[in-house]
Amino acid sequence: MTERIEGHGGELALAALRAYGVREMFTLSGGHVFPIYDAAHKTDFPIYDVRHEQSAVFAAEAVAKLQRRPGLAVLTAGPGVTNGISGLTSAYFNASPVLVLGGRAPQFRWGSGSLQEMDHLPLVAPVTKHAETVFSTDDIPRAVTAALTAALTPHRGPVFLDFPLEAVFSVSDAELPAPPGIAPIEPDPDEVTRAAALIASAARPVIIAGSDVYAGDAVDALRAAAEALQVPVFTNGMGRGALPPEHPLAFAKARRVALKGADVVVVVGTPLDFRLSFGDFGDAKVVHVVDAPSHRAGHVQPAAAPAGDLRLILTAFAEHHGDRADHTDWIAGLRTAEDAAKARDAEEMAAETDPIRPARIYGELHKVLDRDAITIGDGGDFVSYAGRYLEPAQPGTWLDPGPYGCLGTGMGYAMGARVSHPDRQICVLMGDGAAGFSLMDVESLARQRLPVVIVVGNNGIWGLEKHPMRAMYGYDVAADLQPELRYDQVVSALGGAGETVAKAADLEPALRRAFDAGVPYLVNVLTDPTDAYPRSSNLA
Predict the structure, then answer these.
(1) Quick one: which of 381, 406, 377 has its CA closest to 463?
(2) Which of 57-66 are b and which e, b meaning 16 or more Cβ less than 10 Å from the residue's Cβ?
(3) Which pTM does this prediction carry?
(4) Can you give the residue ranges of the Thiamine pyrophosphate enzyme central domain (predicted)?
(5) Check: CATH 3.40.50.970 for 351-526?
(6) What is d(CA 26, CA 463) in angstroms, rounded to the nearest whole number?
(7) Where in the chain is the domain with CATH 3.40.50.970?
(8) Each residue of 245-288: pLDDT tens digit?
(9) How far is residue 383's CA from residue 404's CA, in Å, rounded to a whole number?
(10) Do 104 and 133 touch, CB atoms closer than 8 A?
(11) What are the pLDDT digits (tens) for 505-522?
(12) pLDDT value for 535
């Protein structure tokens, strides 16, 4: 069913966007996209603006991740689009349904040297599911509908449209298509049965659940499958919190023990990438469950690889009626390892050291974070500690850059999270290196009254590089930052507030002041530069 509407290109685009539930845009002002602003202004459609285009795309991605609907960034032509490409690439790796609308120099003068004249498509096509230049005003609703349909179709991902100046400024009447229903991908029932039988009959199975479990609204189905088959569950990405920490099948600390001892490893909704040893779990059989056939791993031959709607697959696992092994002893052994690791972590998170060790910061955060707080990781070494010491209690409460590992997500993610959840705690965990990428956008948060808490682990170095380089070469270069830099004063100058903490006993009061402040507030924690997060190299 379609309706016919009349308006300039911005009005036609906005009408199509509203039909998909898009409720806000993130942008940095540019003349090439004025008609889109005009359409929003005249209809009270919220506009949030930033100081760097990457933050606009990251904010749109946070909305897409948290709300499981399209997020919108509007960027002006040329450098506006190129500044947003890191955000687009992160969204591509994270399967986030983000739409970037770009301005474009006028087509009728193409090749004459107009301001910011550039063909964006060759740059964005490799990191989007759909990229198109819309040359005709009356074609804009069709193009927006097609792009958003592609973004929401598993395997999800970002899309891009740009509009030549004359197309977006001109007036036309056009058909507004109704959003087509996106049918779930039906998995091969034989492959699902094969996978379920492997899991049920395994002596020591393990489930690792990732971001697509949350994105595909399959959290309840995951819990049902784990409980029915009695399989311990570990999580990564936005899969974190799918089972609350107190659930008897939820594990976080014993992953190394589990993967070393498992005979079947079930990876659901996350790629077999460097975070999971590229799918190599020794002698264990691998079951890889993905939301679309296109996302099956090409470098691993799994024992079973069901592809399709994750809810359908996991529900079928839960309803499997074949023979089942008893996993009681396996789960009990992992629980013993988990409890021992938690005890060690508790000691580290309570450590009285001078200078402060990163673990202590997370020990104090445990005391002040609500169960539904949104925590955002933007950093390398400092955020690695967050992955170890913070256990989200609910799904959809953890944001990090994902497998692309792009720094600078922090302030954009914070903006998108605050817009998505006005009444929750929003806490950005940021390394002092990452602060250099996006901290200026605190001004955007302060000006638009979007309070968040930023905790900076300030060790004065690029920790993820300095320690490994010293281990490899006996020296390091390009790995030092200014020690004890006052990032809190930067935030205060930009309209927020903050303080520097050098003693562990001062952490909890500072964090409580931060969450009560009602403005962007940065707690600048001076941490031990010799404390290196233990890790194996990911350089391979």
Answers:
(1) 381
(2) bbbbbbbbbb
(3) 0.96
(4) 192-316
(5) yes
(6) 32
(7) 4-175, 351-526
(8) 999 999 999 999 999 999 999 999 999 999 999 999 999 999 99
(9) 15
(10) yes
(11) 999 999 999 999 999 999
(12) 62
